[in-house]
Predict the structure.
Amino acid sequence: MKYALLIYEHAEDWDAYRNDPDYAAAWPAFTQTLIDAGVMTGGAGLQGPDTATTVRIGDGDHTVQDGPFAEIREMLGGFYLIDVPSLDEALKWAARVPVRAGCCVEVRPQLEM
Amino acid sequence: MDARTEAEKAARTAYGRLVAYLAARTRDIAAAEEALAAAFLRALEVWPVRGVPDRPEAWLLVIARNRLKDSWRRARVRSEAEATVELLMQERNTNEPVFPDDRLKLMFVCTHPAIDETVRTPLMLQTVLGLSAERIASSFLVKPSAMGQRLSRAKTKIRDAGIAFEVPDSDAYAARLPALLNAIYATYGLGWVDFDGGEGRGLADEAIDLGLALHGLVPLTPELNGLLALMLYCQARKAAHYVGGRYVRLGDQDFALWDWGRIEVANRMLNAAGTRRTPGRFQLEALIQSVHVRSAVAGGSDWKGVIGLYEALLKIAPSLAAWTNYAVALTEDGRAADGLAVLDGLDTVRLKDYQPWWVARGHVLKTLGRPDEARTAYERAVGLSQHEAQREFLRERLAEI
């Protein structure tokens, strides 16, 4: 089954994270592990919430706003798409995502298309 | 035995195995239950005419599999399901004498961490034992429709999120086992409270069945043995504990009403667990019950032994119930002031509506010769009681003050 691992990180010390060389090095290593295991089908790391622009769709029109869609403590930092036999396997990979303690990885099955 | 009785017997003994077998291959518990319901209906039509087949379970399984195949064909579902259909049909052709028992996988799915904790016990009762949502709802004090929704949401999640029907590997196994044991114990706890039900099998019996089923599926697991022993010791005394709508205290119980067969099984379970020397919460709680049983039969009590066991239990599983019972044991051992200190040291916010704490408090204060406070505590306990037998028991204690 195909799953998305949605990675939520603390919004307030976002930049501090990114400038830590150990943190930065952990991601390509993890990604390579997913590729070597033959489970990775896609994914992306995202720039910080400061760079976000939100388009709110109205009834026939839309508005453009600066910033992420909601001001919350955790922000989407990126995602992986993986193909594994079960949720249990997906949860094992989610637990290995190299985020800081206190961050979250939400696991969602993808729609069959 | 007539066809209906035969079908009902097959339902009781084989329902969980049939659901587990089908669901483990499709991940779709709801579809498996639906197909089985149809198979049981068909059995009631056919068996009275043609007689009960040699292997009723295999017969039911074939009908249920055909039913699943038909409904999938009608829905023209995805190719993955088609492959499963092929697999199911091939397995039928091998005509295996018995089909594999996948109930352990099903139990681990029901108690999976991805499933909401409050629905794990109901889900296991429904899928493994075949209890109806109505029956489960009444035990959990919720509306049948609400329980039905919760159960169906959980089954949808199991199917759509792709939870694995497998026994966890050795590392995860130890981590996942407590949730499974807790769900069984939760069933027992509900059954124990459910006294006024009176006749017939109660949830407590269902919990023991679940535990025994699990016991037959896993290697020696000391905490499972402990849990089974605990439930069996309590259940064995039930007939003597609750007589003619009234509670009878342990020391006043008629031992002839005890189920000595169950007590013997409990003893054996506990002894087998003890050989591993890995004490745990359930083993300690069972040991406490075994001390109660042995000393009551000897016409005495061993409060020092019980106190030691509670102290060990409180180190690993400090529940409100354990603290409360510890306070009572101290009081019975002539240390009522210590008992009161234990009760007063607990988190009083959580205690506001914890009936056993007020019962214990009434008892301790009465022992300490503080009648007014004892009366207040007992009256509070009466107000928090769920059953008339509890209220009657407490009114007798009040009258003694």
